[in-house]
Amino acid sequence: MSVSFAEVLNEWAQAGVFAYVIPFLLIFAIVFGILQKSKILGAKKGIDAIVSIAVAFLSLQLDFVSSFFAEIFPRFGVGLAVFLVFIIFVGIFMPKQKKGNTAFFIIGIIIAAAVVLWTFGNWNTWGGFGLGGFLEDNFWIVLITTLAIAAVGIVIAAGGGEEVD
Predict the structure, then answer these.
(1) CB neighbours of 34 closer than 8 A, spacing ≥ 6?
(2) What number of H helices and E strands is found in the chain?
(3) CA–centroid distance for 61 within its chain
């Protein structure tokens, strides 16, 4: 009997692995890491672990977190794939620079902002939260404002080090 990977994933989904186990582990790891790094509760791992477990369980008592993760991470994955393709194309066509890659950094920030806006703009299915309606009504204003901020950033980054009296 051969079992496909898709069948395994479907079984895990039915068992609640993606809705509860993975979000629990992610929230636990983030909270535990923050508590360990900040040492806000002291340097005792046991206390940090108990607080992290409590926060992770409390965050899953309603389906809010599960629904949020089910919406954001697939869209985030698509956004990362688009960003990766963009980076590959930029890497192919961008000439080598001797100094810092400031232009590449600014382009990356613009693309990252666009991915975030695109993600929230397409996010109307989850509890009415998102910027979909706002972006539909104000798309050109958001685009022009974003381009203006990007242009200012490029001018500042590319400007010389001359001081004005």
Answers:
(1) none
(2) 6, 0
(3) 24
- Cα distances from 145 to residues 110, 118, 120, 141, in angstroms, run 12, 15, 17, 6
Q: Does the global pTM surpass 0.85?
A: no
Looking at the structure, tell me whether residues 96 and 131 fall in a common domain.
yes
7-21, 97-111, 116-130, 135-149: which range is least confident on average? 116-130
Task: Classify 127 in phi/psi space as left (phi over 0), alpha (psi -120 to 50) or beta.
Answer: left
Residue 163, in any domain of the structure: no
Within this chain, do residues 123 and 43 fall inside the same structural domain, yes or no?
no
Q: Residue by residue, what is the 3-state secondary structure of the chain?
A: CCCCHHHHHHHHHHHCHHHHHHHHHHHHHHHHHHHHHHCECECCHHHHHHHHHHHHHHHCCCCHHHHHHHHHHHHHHHHHHHHHHHHHHHHHHCCCCCCCCHHHHHHHHHHHHHHHHHHHHCCCCCCCCCCHHHHHHHHHHHHHHHHHHHHHHHHHHHCCCCCCC
Task: Decide if 16 is inside a domain.
Answer: yes
Residues 29-79: tens digit of each pLDDT: 999 999 999 989 888 889 999 999 999 999 988 888 888 888 888 888 887
